[in-house]
Amino acid sequence: MGARALPARVLIWWRRREADASVREHQLPVVDRLPDENVEMFRSDLVAIVEFFRTRGVPVVLATHAQRFGDRVSPDEEGMLVKWRLFYPGLKEGGFLDMELRMNEAVRDVAREHGAVLADAARVVPPGPRYFADFVHFSNAGAERMAALLAEKLTPLVKPSLKEDRIPAR
To answer: Of 122, 130, 127, which Cα lies nearest the Cα of 99?
Structure first.
């Protein structure tokens, strides 16, 4: 019997049990919220990358991270959030949306403060199953939205180097 044959509540219970077992097996600390120092390390690493390329004359485009839930998890999406936790069992389910919010704010801040172009996917790709195949991976519709956003942000950066309005043949 596959996971789809189980009632949603049973599947959620089972996945939580798996996450808890992984925590015990690997002796992971479990946190409600990603520590501030992790967000600061991410921000610092991002600044270093942006500055590395910027000082070499390479334009930088940073993208925020879009995910299925937006700013809240509806009751019918709870199972998908629990499934996400299976990959990172040391973070309680409530911490994922907070992590996304804080990390995306760091990306926005770094783009603004260091002259990078921002592709704000978290605000452009709507949450929900139409745009996401699972918790973070795009469906075809989501991939189309993301591709359009990136094309919009990249075109002004590459167009001046093209002689025609198309990508040159190899």
So the answer is: 122
